[in-house]
Amino acid sequence: MQQHPAGREGPIGRASRAALPFTPLESGGGAEQALQEAVRRAARSPQGRMVLALHLSRLPPPGPRPHHRRIARAILEDTAQRHEGQIFTLANGDMVLLCREAVPGRTPAGRQSAGTALPDPTCLPDIMARLLRIDTPDPAGLTTVWRLEEALPAPTEFAPPPPAASRPVLSPPASHGPGLAVQPSVVDAIAAVAEGTAIANLLQRQTGVLIASTNRHDTNPNAPLRPLYREVTFSIDALEARIAAAGQATADPFLFRHLAGRLDPRMLAVLADAAGQGGALDIAAGGRGAPPLHLNLTLAGILSDPFARLAQLCRSLGTAVGVELALVEACADAAAFTRARSLLADCGLTLVLDGVSHLALLLTRPCGWRADLVKLDWSPRLADLAGEERQQVAAALERIGPHRVILHRAETEAALRWGLAQGIRRFQGRYVDAILAAGRTMACPRAAGCSLRQCIERAAATGPAGRTGCGATFLLDGEAPLPVMAGGPAA
Amino acid sequence: VSGLPVRRPETDDDARHAEAVQLRALVRESAGSGTARRAVLLTLSQLPDDLARPHHRRLARAALDPLAAADRARRFDLPGGDIAVVWRGEAPAALRASRDAVLHLFADEAERLPDPASLLRSFRLPEEAELLLEAMQASPIGPAAPAGGGRRAACPPLDPALLAAMEAALVQADVARFVRRRQICERLPEGGFRLRWEERSLSVAEIAAVLAPERSMRGDPWLFRRLTRTLDRRMLALLAAPQELHGAGPFSLNLNIASILSPEFLRFDANLPGALRGQVVIDLLPVDILADPPSFLFARDFARDRGYRLLLHGITADTLEVFPLRRLGLDLLQLHWSPDLARLDPDQALADAAHTVLSRANNAEALAWGREQGIMLYQGRAAVPGGARALPGG
Question: How many whole angstroms separate alpha carbon B228 and alpha carbon B208?
Fold first, then answer.
């Protein structure tokens, strides 16, 4: 829980009487000074006056997002209009409302509504906590309320930020509306990078593993790992870096899907060229029983002729690939999804439903897509869900079948422990990478000069350039279960 | 510019009749010799006049271009603007691409067409030779395609550059003339229907005809989805104009999540007449919800607080199981009618019939299924105010 300002614990009525008297600060930013002055004036006649601070700056990244600010401002403005209020937006993005409390039996001025109750100032903490409960682990800590006749904000509450600490409130460029901040041309340029150059250095891979626990109640994260598959993807970071567009490729989910569709033909061409040639991109590398490659494709990519050719190659080489498809692709065109699922089944290829967040698990029934495997994105919120939601997640996992779930983005031991406790045995993520690298280091005769991080990065590389410096590359593609790591990796 | 290799310049009536004769001969030859061929018939003659304008016909013709690469593909321009393509061997990817392109082209006109899927029918020869000949016979022999319809210009999908240009062009555009209204009606116990609200939407086909007549708007579904955000905002700006909603009745809007959180929505909300508060329905698509679930939850609760009802739009028999209305915390479900619904496992029966709108209810079969399920709200040609008394189950 986030700590509230000294002695004040949020909802009105519980404000502490021990707060210090309000004292204006001598210097600072415009809004902060104006607020202090306004509160000082209001305190001369404090009856029925209140101050509400909305601490948007306490939202963890990616918050506060522009729409958080916009909607919060709209809600506060509604209240300000009807309760003789003033709003102050501080340099850190927090908003402060100074207004009159609602008077029982008296209808406030301003817009009224037939179908909804406009918020009373005393309801604002609950409203904001409800709206933002997904975006913060401590929604109640987002607001602080002072009744001026009982307590005044401490002088440090709205202190102007020192110049070095000030940061502008982020907002999208004026010419673009929300959700339109990324220009299509940027994504077009990123796609052109992949379409116009050799892509070996733009690809990366990550290994998914099976933790060989003996039974469902075994939650030991240090049990032996068996590589199950190796997922080959474009490195979005590397693509963005080519045109100095960090964070732009994924900022708009729809443009990102367009980009993914543009990348499919390149991926399929590279894998077709590499088939039977050996190396990290060879779909037949290692022969029967070796962990197959998994590739991310769009629906259009799966239903394309280049994919049909790759499937034919799989048949002729006696191998298989797994195909990972983003959940939003299925949602966008269920009929095409059904065709793609049938096509993959006919080819004997595994379909993995990718990008299933814990919210998707709570809001929908991913089991209804009938994919072979479901990739659930780990979130620390999963381990911290309230009772009813925890039961819903458990029921959803049960419907899918824990044996068909891969816990993805498993970056910490907590992720593995949570997954194991749910009966999940398939994992992929940086924590798994570290365990695998630690195992290789123990087995490697030339490990003395390598760090764990170097070993992780070399295993993620798909071309020889990325493996430079490794004297035992056969271990990077190792298929055997690796030694148990007592205590887990140190990474 | 791509086109099928057998294109010919003639597009007049005589040439079309001649091609129909040639196609019949080929089909009969196939039946007689047992030569295996595949064929598709695109019956543009089914289209209502306002959906059969030159750009519609160009786009529909371009939808068949993927089949150009099939073995010995040959295109036939038939009377009434219909088109057939015949080829040897299998071309499943090309056939799918053509079918998808046709469905996308008329996706927002579904209730005005008898059955969008029937626009493009495929046949196996020689087994289905008679069916193809009957289908050709059934097509009305109307006038030849209007000028321009004979062009074989390929219609590429929306691309990022054009999307950016369209977004810029639409920033201040008045979209009033592109607004379409559809009626959502409640079935009355005594028979017939009464209007509950109007769905207001923009005609993408008409906007495309003005801004990018040579492009397929839905050819790239993701760039199209992005474009809808701009369209949303123009619609909201239109509705926020003074007097625009004076005297208006209840209505619904298709909006993206991002649009509910936009300044344009806040202005619309601020200008919404008091009598309409609580009377407006916002339609959301599943893909938009799952593209950003935290924003969905934020927007859902905000819109609810402001008195809007929220409807989950675009649900089909395929996705009914995946999107449980109550778990999503939404008020209404819009379910597209198709005969597949009638074949659903009873265990998957509609859990929220009282909160379901059955859309594309264009025939008695749809109404009968809806009544059986306990659905009260309908959208489609068979469910109009005061109508459908004569329809079985109405």
Answer: 12
Q: At what angle do helices A253-274 and A305-317 cross, to 10 degrees?
A: 40
Four-point Cα dihedral A137, A138, A142, A147, nearest 10: 170
Taking CA atoms, A196 is separated from A190, A193, A202, A242, in Å, by: 10, 5, 12, 12
Which pLDDT tens digits describe chain A residue by residue (491 residues)? 333 333 233 333 333 332 333 333 344 468 888 898 899 899 898 999 999 999 999 999 888 999 999 999 999 999 999 899 999 999 899 999 999 988 766 665 555 554 455 668 889 999 999 999 999 989 999 999 999 988 888 767 776 666 554 444 444 333 344 456 789 999 999 999 999 888 888 999 999 999 986 566 666 656 688 999 999 999 999 999 999 989 899 999 999 999 999 999 999 999 999 999 888 899 998 777 789 999 999 999 999 999 999 999 999 999 999 999 999 999 999 989 999 999 999 999 999 999 999 999 999 999 999 999 999 999 999 998 988 999 999 999 999 999 999 999 999 999 999 999 999 999 999 999 999 999 898 888 888 889 999 999 999 998 888 888 888 888 888 755 555 444 444 43
Distance between CA A485 and CA A224 in Å, rounded?
8
Q: What is the DSSP string of B152-163?
A: ----PBP-HHHH
What ranges in A223-333 are assigned the alpha helix state H?
236-242, 253-274, 299-302, 305-317, 327-332
Other C-beta atoms closer than 10 Å to the C-beta of A48 total 15
How many Å apart are CA B290 and CA B258, to the nearest integer? 12
- What is the spatial distance between Cα A314 and Cα A349, in angstroms, rounded to a whole number? 9
Q: B286: phi > 0 → left, psi -120 to 50 → alpha, else beta; which?
A: alpha
Contact partners, residue A283, CB within 8 Å, separation at least 6: A271, A274, A275, A292, A293, A310, A313, A314, A317, A319, A321
Please tell me the distance from the alpha carbon of residue A226 to that of residue A480, in angstroms, as a whole number. Answer: 7
The owner of tokens 């199981």 is: B321
CB B166 within 8 A of CB A180: no
Q: Which residue of B has its CA nearest to A369?
A: B322
Q: What is the complex's ipTM, to 2 decimals?
A: 0.87
Nearest to B164 among A111, A183, A308 (CB): A183
DSSP structure class, residue A449: G
Which secondary structure element, helix H or strand E, spans residue B271, and what is its range? helix B263-271
d(CA B204, CA B237): 17
- What pTM did the predictor assign? 0.80
Nearest CB among A71, A305, A362 relative to B261 is that of: A71
A vs B: CB pairs below 8 A: 168
Q: Which residues of A touch B259 (CB under 8 A)?
A: 179
Residue in A135, A131, A357 with CA at minimum distance from that of residue A253: A357
Residue B24's region, left for phi above 0, alpha for psi from -120 to 50, else beta, is alpha
Contacts of B316 in chain A (CB under 8 A): 334-335
Of the residues A79, A258, A358, the best mutation for testing chain B's interface (the one with the most B CB atoms within 10 Å of its CB) is A258
B228 vs B136, B224, B280, CA distance in Å?
37, 6, 20
